[in-house]
Design brief:
The complex is a heterodimer of chains A (about 110) and B (about 120). With about 110 residues, chain A is mainly β. Chain A has strands at about 5, 10-15, 20-25, 30-40, 40-50, 55, 65-70, 75-80, 90-95, 105, 110-114. Chain A contains no helices and eleven strands. The relative contact order of chain A is 0.34. Helix content of chain B is about 0%, strand content about 55%. Classes of the chains: A mainly beta (about 110), B mainly beta (about 120).
């Protein structure tokens, strides 16, 4: 079991640039989550997919953020244009089923926007 | 408005002693609670959970206690080991089945276990 794989591990970019974060969930998991961690707000849910369909994107901060899940083994989170306040650690997590099975997190992408 | 609060940003204990991490919540609808552990440069990993129909759940050295009337839960680690040094997050959710996907996390407590 390779776990949830995120890339890149670190991303440094200039304000206004497009940023794409990638996630490969654990094989067989049908739910995928994108979280953001900041000092001020802690871990926040951005978007939740079930069977590749976005179910809840109410946590996406604004239209600059978008997420896709074209198939069961890949998801992207895109920020365009990026701003310094987007600097955070972004985690992808997956799990099987819809009940209380625990989330499996990737190691995160640390994004710095200068 | 923080619905899940971990009021101690950090805790330091001696190896072999008990570690007690606390968590308070304000949303009375929460009925499932979890603890996650996070090492630096890694993602959180699931540690232990408890349903609101119970007041205690034990897994090896880790025990979670739930006091619904006080809206309080705690994680006990006995005995504490240096490898337990990590950030511990408390999380809560509402409902069961497909509606309970939304975990609300506390901001975490950094536990340091000194040899």
């Amino acid at each position: 079991d390779a776990g949830v794989i995120q890339s890149p591990r670190h991303e440094v970019t200039e304000m206004g640039q497009e940023v794409t974060l990638r996630c490969k969930p654990i094989s067989g998991h049908n739910s995928l989550f994108w979280y953001r961690q900041t000092m001020m707000r802690g871990l926040e849910l951005l978007i939740y997919f079930n069977n590749n369909v976005p179910i809840d994107d109410s946590g996406m901060p604004e239209d600059r953020f978008s997420a896709k899940m074209p198939n069961a083994s890949f998801s992207t989170l895109k920020i365009q244009p990026s701003e310094p306040r987007d600097s955070a650690v972004y985690f992808c997590a997956s799990r099987w089923g819809q009940t209380n099975s625990p989330l499996h997190f990737g190691n995160g992408t640390r994004l710095t926007v200068t | 408005d923080q619905q899940v609060k971990q009021n101690s940003p950090s805790l330091s204990v001696q190896e072999g002693r008990i570690s007690i991490l606390n968590c308070d919540y304000t949303n009375s609808m929460f009925d499932y609670f979890l603890w996650y552990k996070k090492y630096p440069a890694e993602g959180p990993t699931f540690l232990i959970s408890i349903s609101s129909i119970k007041d205690k759940n034990e897994d090896g050295r880790f025990t979670v206690f739930l006091n619904k009337s006080a809206k309080h839960l705690s994680l006990h680690i006995v005995p504490s080991q240096p490898g337990d040094s990590a950030v511990y997050f408390c999380a809560a959710s509402v409902g069961s089945g497909g509606s309970n996907y939304k975990l609300t996390f506390g901001k975490g407590t950094l536990l340091t276990v000194n040899p």
